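Review box. Two proteins, two foldings.
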Amino acid sequence: QVQLVESGGGLVQAGGSLRLSCAASGRTFNIYSMGWFRQAPGKEREFVAAINWIGGTEDYGGSVKGRFTISRDNAKITVYLQMTSLKPEDTGDYYCTGRRGSMRSEWSAYDYWGQGTQVTVSS
């Protein structure tokens, strides 16, 4: 099995920055890509970003493109989400995901999920 643990969430003012981390453990050799999704209260879950572990190809949701950056640390088996120019609409629970295949933007395509970390952006 694979365990994913997110950290780095918190409260930040609009315009500020925050970096989320997701550490993978267990049978990590199964992971070929990792991603981030978010869900705001009363809204549907939304794709944020994803990255292929080999090659580092990235993909972003339209609402975060140009503001968020996903990256990985192979040695630490950790993926990061650097969030800048944060807006109140970025508020939500952020979930880390892992997949036994190339990155996808659908939640259901992933095989492993973290417990989530909360991000609150105040106006």
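Next protein.
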Amino acid sequence: QLQFVESGGGLVQPGGSLRLSCTASGFILNYYAIGWFRQAPGKEHEGVSCIYISDGSTYYADSVKGRFTISRDTTKNTVSLQMNNLKPEDAAVYYCDALVVVTMGGSIRNYWGLGTQVTVSS
């Protein structure tokens, strides 16, 4: 069964950095997009960043532009999110999220992991 597992969360002071990673286990026929969304307590979930596989273009939420960088390592089947200059409002559970096809002729399906907690506090 296909799973996405996030790692790299933790506690960091404002202005600090963290690098999140997401590793896929299981067979994937095709990726369409992969990225991250986050959810803070009492707030709607927010799309943070993603890579569109067809052309390699990237999306960043306005709130993280210039501070976060998404990257993908196809040899390791991972996607990472480098987060710099973290702010208290970045604190949330971060989830890896992907649109993939897992079987020949199958439909595009959305998978996401269990999340990793990011806390930004002094």
